[in-house]
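pasting input
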Amino acid sequence: MPGFEFIGKEEQDAVNDVFDRGGVLYRYGWDDRRQHVYRVDDFEKAFANKFGVKYALGLSSGTTALKVALKSLDVKPGDEVITQSHTFIATVEAIIEVGAKPVITEVNKTLNMDPKDLRDKITERTKVIIPVHMSGVAAQMKEILAVANEYNVSVLEDNAQSCGGEYTGIKLGAMGEVGIFSFDFGKVMTTGEGGMLITNDEAIFKKAREYSDHGHELNPDFPRGEDTRSRSGFNYKMMELQGAIGLAQLKKLDYIIERQRENKAKIEEGIKDNPGIEFREIPNPEGEIGDTLTFFLENREKAKKFVEIWSKKGLGTKNLPDAINWHFAGTWDHIFSQYDEYKDKDLTNVWQQSNAILRRAIAIPILAKMDESQIDKIVNAVNECLPRI
Ligand SMILES: Cc1ncc(COP(=O)(O)O)c(C=O)c1O
């Protein structure tokens, strides 16, 4: 969660440097005025290097990165794109934005895509599967990639929420054909708004770059004003200030994750002996980033009661349950009512398994800069709340 905790001198110096070198805020051109320094370009190179991929493309947000990724995978109206019931609404918005139909799987106790349900949801129209690595924890990628390979369907990893996480030693986002990241202000590293797309596939990268820049092919034989193009696009480019800040934040990523993991482990140790507490299942214990500590209570009523007492102590949760309406497809009537099969249906009953799991989940946000007294406060508060519900 805490890129914002580390916005400081390094980021400010990086921004000042852009101004000191002529104040070119645009990623292309003005070569002499900017002294041939290109921050978005530098950020992309550093990001690709850190994530062990050939290509990285800086974009204006995680949401636009999702759209650009779907475009680069040639998703068209009439295609189906599968994602999971527990995600931020942006994943589904991007699918709709490219004219495809969102098909939603249940989540299991990993709070990510249920691979069994994924298999049931595949049809001959399925073009892409989007597993989402929610709140620091990997989806079950081994099982998901096996289904994708069996049916010859592309995988786009929505890694907006688990930047820096790993699964079987591979960075999340680098396991599918394409992966995306968000650098909005709540993310583990932040540029205020911003996103990144990564891939090892040159053709996907080129399509993504062209689509996000009005179709520009960056043809080296022509100046930008006479650049060639073969398909239409849009404008989702990242700007230089985001590139400069992103470079500074990327240098802090490992440290942030280390601190989060430590703090999460301390809180977990302090509350684990409570009877009836059941922790979220983690498929990548070595590689999770410690973004939240999530546990399930016996039923929805107990979870509600817990939060009542918890908030009276001045403490908060992260998305579950406070912002569940933005993170559970079962509450998105405004989106699904356009499809005949969901019309007039109670959506919570459509994804019953997810509803049952999500409604008993409590997600405690973890900060990197928590000190011992803050950690003790949370541990003591959980230990006091649980016996009272
Ligand atoms: C899972 C997920 N996907 C996509 C996004 C969209 O990212 P952005 O806010 O950068 O548009 C978010 C942002 O919260 C997210 O959590």
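fyi The pocket of pyridoxal-5'-phosphate is lined by residues 61-63, 87-88, 90-91, 132, 158, 160-161, 182, 184, 195 (CB under 6 Å).
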